[in-house]
Amino acid sequence: MTSLLDNVFNGLALGAVYALVALGFVIIFKASGVMNFAHGSLLLLGGYLTAVLHDDLGFAGALAVSVLVTAAVAGAMDRFLLQAGGPDPHTAHVQTIVTIGVDILILTDLSRRIGGDLLSLGDPWGDSVSGLGPVTVADSRIAAIVVSAVVIAGVFALFRYTSWGLSLRAAAEDVEAASLMGVRLVRVRMLAWCLAGALAALAAVFLAAFPAPGLERTTGQIALKAFPAAILGGMASPPGALAGSLLIGMTEALVAGYQSELHVLGEGFGDVAPYAVMVLVLLVRPTGLFGGKAAVRV
Amino acid sequence: MSERLPRARAIRLGWTCAAVAVLCALPFYLDAFWLRIGLFSMAAAVGAVGLGLLSGTAGQLSLGHAFFLAVGAYGYVWLAGEPGPGLPTAVAAVLAVLLAGAAGGLFSPVAGRVRGIYLGVATLALVFLGHHVLLTADSVTGGFNGRSVPPLELGGFSFSTDSELTLLGVPFGAEERLWYLGLALFAVTWFTARGILRSRPGRALVALRDSETAAAVMGVNVSRYRSAAFVVSSMYAGLAGVLLALSFRRVVPDYFGLVLSVDYLAMIVIGGLGSVAGATAGAVFVTTLPLLMTRYADQLPLVAAPGTTDGTVGPTEAARYLYGAAIVLILLFAPDGLHGLARRLRARLRRRGAAPPPSGTTAPSQPTASAVRAKEPTP
User: What Pfam families does the entry give (chain A) (predicted)?
Assistant: First the structure.
């Protein structure tokens, strides 16, 4: 029973971190129709900056700088590379491929700098653990859940109560109408990218914290797990991304936790189980759990 | 216009013949390195044309191309080799292509219903699940270390270095022989894909891409055409996989990962969506650029020799930088890809060669044309 609780808690923590990544991914898609392949490198960039700066600035300072810089990089990438030809929705697929190019550039540079090292991010939780009822959990995981919950609530509040959130939702609904109503598409989009970059940088901290050995050059690949999470929930729905992330995190933790019972499926099935779940869900609901049916005008 | 048509066709025919002649003559002049680059390009072109049909023409985003390449490659290796049924290699190659098509067909419950970015990520699942299977099903795939590929034999002629063969004083090894196989397969791909595009199914797919509802109203069976596009594209991928396996001579699971799928996507977008020539150009570009850069990077400025690792840029990294930058720059300046770029260049040349055109017909592109003239005045 304890092992079940253990796994559930792990899944919750994992899902919370995936949610940060997937939410950014969904925000970008909602705002620009682009599937951001560079999300993993943004995440790695955030983690790397925290890792190199924490000696001088302390953890909190380093994290703040890294979140700001990553947000700026994401925003600049959108403004100067993707929107260079104007915010034209017809070229979303071209912009998607441009993100691949940017991903290659950032990833190559960071891999060169990180090399084979394991970087510590200097987070305050270290390897301490606490007892929660019958289970013992790492403090970093509790922090991951708490911080993710607060941040995600904040993002939803941004959507709901700020004029930027309103503009974003309007632009996602109907670009032309929003533009005619005075929504500054270029700026709204750029801010969405900034927000997504900031979320990715934050997520990097928890992906490199305690049970994980530290920041490696492959840490960014975890962003790929956010793809099924975002799709499962329905790409255009931030609450869906949240639910999808929890489902993905839970699946991964449970499959990895019961590895020995599931050895028929092969070693390391936990890493690919999220994708299997996603395909099964898509078979039943082709637009994800929360994705509504879009009305099409011909 | 109508009286110029036969002449234009003759010119085009002439160019095609010249291109074919050059391509056929190349093995007599190039060494194995260049031939191998050519082979990879041809294999990639076959796969990219298939993906172009699916994503460019039918508008279905697929990130699962690497999986179907893997099915083709591993299917061939298993069917032709030991352990495996040990079929004649030519039969195994054909069956491997059909197997890839069948794999695409099995995915049709998803491919027929799921659309857009959802399909893209659903196919991503194929890559990861496929990679997992390739790693764990040791008895068929050889696990992490992969399997070596039995050379293709066609009517007693072996596409390998086993038997001596010298043509016009040039020793014909595996690369030279496979070059012609690659050319033949590419030609088949080129003509079948163009045939599909210009016929009824091709138009149905374009209609599907532009508006699903409108296509359905016109009598296109939506889910059937969507699935069929997926199957056809998987078969091209399978063919590319077989060709790749033959040129690599060893298949390993790690090659068929997400990076490969993304590369194929980059090929068709860089080349220009919806055209066979564009997909080919993109395939050649994406395949050759990293290989050439890795080989010649040490001659670039600011690049250290391989082996020195103290924070300097090595040749592999320099190649990656340039590759990434090339993707960004090409799409920044030519969002419609190489195909669109070529079309614009051709239009510009034609305009410069002809008398000044009446202003009404070329109004949209007038500013660029005058800008060019201002920069380089024609004598």
Answer: BPD_transp_2 (PF02653)
Of residues B118, B136, B335, nearest to A91 (C-beta): B335
Answer whether B129 sits within 8 Å of A271, measured CB to CB.
Answer: no
The burial class, CB within 10 Å (0-12 / 13-18 / 19+), for B369 is middle
- Partner-chain contact A282 B110, CB within 8 Å: yes
CB B189 within 8 A of CB B44: no
CA–CA distance, A256 with A277 (Å, rounded to integer): 14
Which of A35, A81, A276 lies nearest to residue B129, judging by beta carbons?
A276
Residue-wise pLDDT tens digits, B3-27: 556 777 888 888 888 887 777 777 7
CB atoms B317 and A268 under 8 Å: no
Q: Return the CA Rg of chain B.
A: 23
Instruction: Give residues with Cβ within 8 angstroms of A270, minimum separation 6.
Output: A252, A253, A255, A256, A259
| Alpha helices (H) along chain B | 5-25, 32-51, 65-80, 89-106, 108-111, 116-136, 138-141, 174-198, 200-210, 212-217, 222-248, 258-271, 276-296, 315-333, 337-353, 366-375
Q: End-to-end CA distance of chain B, in Å?
A: 28
Given a contact cutoff of 8 angstroms between Cβ atoms, the answer to whether A144 and A21 are in contact is no
Grouping H, G, I as helix, E, B as strand and the rest as coil, residue B136 is helix
pTM of the shown model? 0.80
Query: Taken in order A255, A259, A261, A263, is the CA torsion positive or negative?
Result: positive
Contacts of A93 in chain B (CB under 8 A): 61, 269, 273
Give me the half-sphere count of Cα atoms (radius 13 Å) on the Cβ side of residue B4.
Answer: 2
Minimum Cα–Cα distance from B313: chain A residue:
A112
Name A42's Cβ contacts closer than 8 Å, sequence gap at least 6: A36, A70, A73, A74, A106, A196, A197, A200, A201
Cβ pair B328:A81 closer than 8 A: yes
Contact A231 B121 (CB under 8 A): yes
Residue matched to tokens 């051709």:
B346
Q: What DSSP state is assigned to residue B162?
A: S
pLDDT digits (tens, 9 = 90+) for B117-162: 778 788 888 888 888 888 877 777 777 777 777 777 776 677 666 6
What is the Cα–Cα distance from A51 to A122, expressed in whole angstroms?
Answer: 7
- Residue B196 CB coordination number (10 Å): 18
CB contact under 8 A, A231 and B323: no
On the CB side of A228, CA atoms within 13 Å amount to: 29
CB B57 within 8 A of CB B287: no
> ipTM score here?
0.79
Q: Are B238 and B101 in contact (CB under 8 A)?
A: yes
Chain A interface mutation, best of B67, B128, B134, highest count of A Cβ atoms under 10 Å: B128
pLDDT tens-place string over residues A103-141: 889 988 888 888 777 777 777 776 777 776 677 777 788
Strand partners, A230: none
Give the chain B residue whose CA is nearest to the CA of A264.
Answer: B136
Q: Copy the structure tokens of residue B97.
A: 């292509």
Could you tell me which chain A residue has the CA closest to the CA of B136? A266
